[in-house]
Amino acid sequence: MAGTQRTRPWNAANAGASSVAEAEITFAAAAARVLIAKLPIGAVITRAWVEVLTAFNAGTTNLVTVGHGAVGAGTADDIVDTVTEGTPGVYPGVAGIPMAAETAEKEVYVYYTPTGTAPTTGKARAFIEYVRLAANG
Length: 137
Fold this sequence. Notes:
Jelly Rolls, five-stranded antiparallel beta sheet, three-stranded antiparallel beta sheet
C-alpha cells in the first residue's frame, strides 16, 4: 500500500472546533503524494508534524514533506519541510504556524520524493490540526 488518507475530525462542522487530519505514506509512494485533508475557506492550520515510523532508504535522498501544492510547484513543503527520513521520530511543522486563514479551499498533501536507488523501506504519518472560523459557516 502506497498511502492512505486517515482523517479524524472532531466537531469539524462547528466554528472554533479543532480537527486533526492524518495520512500515511510509504516507500511505495515514491515520487507521489497522499491527500491529508481538503481545508475549507477560513481554516487555520494551528499545528503540523510528521512521524517517521520506519526509516526510508532510497539511495541518495528521501524527502518527506507536507504542503499545499502539487509536486514541483514550490509549495510541497510550506507546512513541514525538515524531516530526517532515515531516523524514526517526530518532526514539527515550519516556523509560521499557526498559518493565516485559508482564502480558498485548499488540499494538503504529504509527499515522498526519493532519489538514487529505489527504496525498499519507509513509512510515515503526517498530521495537521486546524480550526474553522465562523466566517466559513
